[in-house]
Design a protein that fits this description.
The complex is a heterodimer of chains A (393) and B (630). With 393 residues, chain A is α+β, with helices and mostly antiparallel strands. Chain A is built from 13 helices and eight strands. Chain A folds into two domains: 7-48 and 145-316, Multidrug efflux transporter AcrB transmembrane fold; 55-140, Alpha-Beta Plaits, CATH 3.30.70. Chain A has helices at residues 6-12, 23-43, 50-53, 71-85, 114-128, 146-170, 173-197, 203-231, 242-277, 283-315, 318-337, 341-349, 352-359; strands at 47-48, 55-61, 63-64, 67-68, 95-97, 104-110, 136-140, 200-201. Chain A starts with 5 loop residues before the first helix and ends in a 34-residue tail after the last helix. In chain A, 51% of the residues are buried. Chain B has 630 residues and is an alpha+beta fold. Chain B folds into three domains: 3-38 and 433-618, Multidrug efflux transporter AcrB transmembrane domain (Multidrug efflux transporter AcrB transmembrane fold, Up-down Bundle); 46-110, Alpha-Beta Plaits (2-Layer Sandwich); 115-425, no CATH class. Chain B contains 23 helices and 14 strands. In chain B, the strands form three sheets. Chain B has a five-stranded antiparallel beta sheet with strand order 6-7-4-10-11. Chain B has a five-stranded mixed beta sheet with strand order 8-9-13-5-12. The longest helix of chain B is centred in the C-terminal third of the chain and has 33 residues, at 531-563. The radius of gyration of chain B is 29 Å and the shape is elongated. Residues 137-205 and 616-630 of chain B have low confidence and may be disordered. The chains are: A alpha+beta (393), B alpha+beta (630). At the A-B interface, helix 1, strand 5, strand 7, helix 6 and helix 8 of A face helix 4, strand 2, strand 14, helix 17 and helix 19 of B.
Chain lengths: 393, 630
């Protein structure tokens, strides 16, 4: 039988990819990636921007012997001077201070030692042809104080505690744990990318990081909502193990996850494209980058990490354990007396066939299936007998 | 609810918002001026002020500079949700940059930050919001008055001691047992607000001529009857017995910080409609005068503080210490000899107080067990209010729920108080934008590209339904813009480039909630439901998902807004705003529009909605699945 193409099956929510079943694979990959990231935190650390690490600020006059400097020229002159001393140094945009004859530009650069700053100042004086006393250099502290970081972390901890409580009430503790695991994965991975590639961490990055946090949980909640729906009353039937029901939910929400991911990533892509492509550096690129990386991981982990973690946790629950055993026993029995093995295994795996028969108003219930009125099933609750008949939400 | 009615509500929201944009909150100037959001430092530049700090003529130590930076930062942040930049330059200069023309706001910042030790003589909940809008039925009033003893959350920037239950006691081993954590019941404090200030006869201090004029203005603004009523108050108005008791004082809630400041302290404390927000907006140095009783805020409650018997410069030293016997972090405090005498006197007064003393009642409301508490006030903030557990004649310890970091923070602040840092205001200058107009344009182009891509994708995938997405994105954008303009004017909310980028992203995330809804709709139609029945069913389920997912984002925004400071707080505000607007659009626009669409014939055509495709393929499938099933 010809199966429809993957795109169509995705569209129908019947891609039927075995995601939860391969959980060992995902866990191994995730563990490896996390190990690499954490290794990088320890070995390479992060490239902190001037806002965090502090830096050196240069002041140059607007009026020079050769006429007035533009903001851009001042910036470039400082950049030349600073990079001649320290090729790795970053230079920020110039800012004009004051108006009229006394006006000056201040340009912030990465932290330099006193000797380096003196050398850079000398180069700057020579380059611009101004007198030495008109150019000054100063150490500046971080604009992003420690207190801001401390309070933000405190806020995050409180938020995580509350969100876990919320998820426990709204779902159950296993789902809360799985959601938290996938969130931590996203955050570690995003930070890992920054550490490994050596992107500069700026306040925009931190803000983007916080956005990722909310988005990642949002994505997981969407998937878990469907899982919860599919597995409600699962122990009443014996067609699916918990892992299979979860896998079905993941498949059904796959298109939704991809869609939401895509729709959210498109504007971010626009930011990144303009920010990195046309402007080279700055706020837009910083934000675009962290969001793109973080939300990308968010979409992926909600599919291949959150649900598998959940099903591993659930499989430990005695009730679900017993249920799974019963399903498997029943399946083994059925496959030996009713159908050719290959066909049966396929049907057990390709659960959508059950549903379609129900949807099409299947009149011949399979053995073991309870009679279920057509209107009483949602696609999610699909398989006959998965839920006590007539129960409607 | 009828779809038309929801759309009408949305229309009303829209009209009210834009009326506010054009006419409320100090709108002035031409049509386009009124539509101008307040742009941030990076986009339009602003004003820069420098402050040279000194401690007794010397450049301050590094720790003192850090504390000074924090104090200036909290003063700046008290001006509103604007993203100010405060950096230390060199070893003694603090540079503050604010967006736009901000000379007036920056003028006030150079006030010296002083520390005062004041006996806590009264506590009353900050009930301003309930006092202004009392709940209609009387029975619910008892729950409405927030209790002073169980404040919900510490105000941002509060010292760790705010959440701990600190207690001070004589130093030495074993002397510093923490106070038992007996929390008075909320009912008790709600029904028995703190006693009146210890000395009701204390005459208000002589005011300067300027303040006198302001006071006269305020008196006029309040109105004669309310003023006389406020003057007659001897204790805070008890809202638990009469929820409407705050109404006569409604006019007080409109006063600015400077106006509140000229009111007698007693009145600031007793009038229920004066909120902590208003008190925090008083000019810097408002409660510096050691010879005056003052009102401050602590853990979300208003506190009445006695004259300052001990000043910051009486402190000799402070340091964090790990108590060897209890294994707890404490802050130890030493006074200079003259200061020690005053401190001993103050602690004797606090320790020997009986339940007849007003400070006793007040202290029990903030968790003290048997003695009065002394508030340590730095600048306008009560950084700690330990209960005095002995007559302290030697080294003192503040115990509480400290860890190494919070103990150091408190001792840094105490040390800072020991040598007052003076700020000398340097010149104020305008600064240009760091990013400039070209980056702003780039940001807007990025927004257009991003939204264009979302629209193309939506039309491709959902066909005509894409237009619902497109329309509601446009609507979200308009609502966001209106809110930004209005909030920029009233709350000082500034829009930086990062903020713009954030809103672009949030529009993308808003489109997400559509996808959830539409995919659900597809599922329902796939099952063979008619659009008419599928829409409400899909809505019912999708609503649950959307609310759960958005609840998390709102939770994140609220927690970060309350706890954090600076740029993170600004971010949290923007995030909360965009989610609320998203929910508004989902409930009041998308759902009614979809309900109306479902009643049209064209809705199911594959060309129009992109939904019919599900049906078509489905009709082909049963045969094949039968084969498989056999």
């Amino acid at each position: 039988m010809a199966r429809p193409g993957l795109a169509t099956r995705l569209y129908q929510g019947e891609a039927n990819l075995n995601i939860v079943g391969r959980r060992k694979l995902w866990f191994t990959i995730a563990a490896a990636l996390i190990a690499v990231s954490i290794g990088s935190f320890v070995i390479r650390g992060f490239e902190l921007g001037i806002e965090f690490a502090g830096g050196t600020s240069f002041t140059v006059p607007v009026a020079t012997a050769e006429g007035k400097l533009t903001q851009e020229e001042a910036e470039q002159a400082v950049e030349r001077a600073v990079t001649s001393v320290d090729p790795e140094a970053e230079v920020h945009a110039a800012q004009q201070v004051g108006n009229g004859d006394d006006a000056s530009y201040t340009v912030r650069a990465s932290a330099l030692t006193a000797a380096e700053a003196e050398e850079a100042k000398g180069a700057l004086v020579q380059d611009l042809g101004v007198s030495a006393e008109d150019v000054s250099d100063n150490q500046v502290s971080s604009a992003w104080g420690d207190a801001v970081t401390e309070k933000a972390i405190l806020g995050l901890v409180i938020f995580l505690v509350l969100v876990v409580a919320y998820l426990i009430v709204r779902f159950e503790w296993r789902m809360a744990v799985a959601a938290l695991a996938s969130l931590l994965f996203d955050l570690v991975m995003t930070a890992g990318v920054y550490s490994i590639v050596g992107f500069e961490v700026t306040p925009s990055t931190v803000i983007g990081f916080l956005t990722v946090l909310g988005y990642s949980l949002y994505d997981v909640v969407v998937v878990f909502d469907k899982v919860q729906e599919n597995t409600r009353g699962i122990t009443a039937g014996s067609t699916r193990t918990y892992a299979e029901a979860t896998n079905l939910a993941v498949n059904q929400t796959l298109m939704r996850s991809l869609n939401t991911g895509l729709v959210a990533l498109l504007p971010v892509g626009g930011l990144l494209f303009i920010g990195a492509g046309f402007l080279g550096a700055g706020t837009l690129k910083d934000l675009g980058l962290v969001l793109f990386v973080g939300m990308g991981f968010g979409v992926i982990s909600s599919i291949v990490l959150a649900a598998p973690v959940l099903s591993s946790l659930k499989d430990q629950e005695p009730k679900i354990k017993a249920h799974n055993a019963r399903v498997l026993a029943r399946r083994a029995q059925r496959s030996s007396d009713v159908a050719p093995k290959a066909e049966r295994a396929r049907a057990a795996n390709a659960t959508e066939s059950d549903e379609v028969s129900v949807l099409a108003g299947g009149t011949t219930p399979r053995p073991g299936a309870r009679p279920v009125a057509k209107r009483n099933t949602t696609r999610g609750g699909g398989g006959a007998g998965n839920r006590p008949g007539g129960k409607r939400r | 609810m009828h779809p038309g009615r929801q759309l009408a509500v949305l229309g009303l929201v829209f009209v009210v918002l834009y009326l506010a944009v054009f006419f409320a909150g100090g709108a002035k100037g031409s049509f386009t001026d009124r539509l101008e959001p307040k742009l941030g430092l990076d986009l339009v530049g602003g004003t820069q002020a420098t402050y040279i700090a000194s401690q007794q003529g010397e450049p301050p130590t590094q720790e003192a500079m850090k504390t000074a930076q924090e104090i200036i930062e909290s003063r700046v942040n008290a001006l509103g949700v604007s993203e100010a930049e405060v950096v230390i330059q060199g070893n003694n200069t603090i540079v503050v940059s604010l967006a736009g023309e901000a000379e007036d706001q920056l003028k006030d910042l150079s006030q010296a930050a002083n520390m005062r030790f004041r006996l806590l003589t009264g506590v009353t909940g900050d009930v301003a919001s309930t006092a202004v809008n009392p709940p209609a039925p009387a029975p619910s009033a008892s729950g409405a008055a927030p209790s002073a003893s169980a404040p919900a959350a510490a105000p941002s920037g509060a010292a760790p001691a705010a959440t701990a239950k600190p207690s001070a006691s004589t130093g030495g081993q074993g002397g510093g047992a923490p106070a038992p954590s007996n929390e008075p019941s909320p009912a008790a404090s709600a029904s028995a607000p703190a006693a009146a200030p210890s000395d009701p006869a204390a005459a208000p201090l002589p005011l300067s001529a300027k303040n006198k004029a302001l006071l006269a203005d305020v008196e006029k603004k309040i109105g004669k009857s309310a003023w006389t009523a406020a003057e007659k108050l001897t204790a805070p108005v008890d809202l638990s017995t009469d929820p409407k008791a705050g109404l006569p004082f409604k006019a007080f809630s409109t006063l600015s910080g400077a106006e509140v400041n000229v009111l007698p302290a007693k009145m600031q404390f007793n009038v229920p409609t004066i909120s902590c927000d208003q008190l925090n907006q008083r000019p810097n140095g408002a409660i510096d005068d050691p010879n005056a009783e003052v009102v401050a805020c602590y853990s979300g409650a208003k506190v009445m503080l006695d004259k300052a018997e001990v000043l910051g410069d009486d402190i000799a030293d402070a340091s964090p210490q790990l108590d060897q016997t209890t294994g707890q972090w404490v802050v130890s405090l030493d006074f200079k000899s003259a200061g020690q005498t005053k401190w001993t006197e103050l602690t004797r007064k606090a320790f020997n107080a009986t339940s007849a003393d007003p400070c006793y009642t007040a202290a029990t409301q903030i968790g003290a067990s048997a003695h009065c508490a002394v508030a340590v006030v730095l600048d306008k903030e009560v950084i700690s209010a330990p209960e005095i557990q002995g007559v302290l004649s030697g080294q003192s310890q503040i115990t509480g729920d400290f860890n190494a970091a919070t103990a150091k923070e408190l001792s840094d602040k105490l040390k800072f108080g020991a040598i007052p840092v003076n700020f000398e205001a340097g010149p104020m200058q305008t600064v240009s934008a760091t990013l400039g107009i070209q980056q702003l344009e780039a940001g807007l182009i990025a927004a257009a590209i991003g939204l264009g891509l979302v629209a193309i994708y939506a039309f491709f995938y959902y066909r005509l339904l894409g237009s619902v997405i497109f329309l509601s994105l446009a609507l979200s954008a308009l609502l966001t813009f209106g809110a930004l303009v209005f909030l920029g004017r009233t709350m000082g909310f500034t829009l930086t480039l990062a903020g713009i980028a954030g809103f672009i992203v949030s529009l993308g995330i808003a489109a997400d909630s559509f996808v959830i809804y539409f995919e659900r709709l597809k599922d329902e139609i796939h099952e063979g439901r008619t659009p008419r029945s599928a829409v409400p069913r899909a809505w019912h389920r999708a609503r649950r998902t959307i609310i759960s997912a958005n609840a998390i984002t709102i939770l994140c925004a609220v927690v970060l807004y309350i706890v954090s400071i600076g740029a993170v707080q600004g971010f949290a505000f923007a995030m909360g705003l965009s989610v609320v607007l998203d929910l508004l659009v989902v409930f009041l626009f998308r759902h009614p529009i979809m309900t109306m669409f479902a009643n049209t014939k064209a809705f199911m055509s594959p060309r129009v909605s992109g939904l019919g495709r599900v049906l078509r393929t489905q009709s082909e499938e049963p045969a094949s699945s039968r084969v498989k099933e056999a």
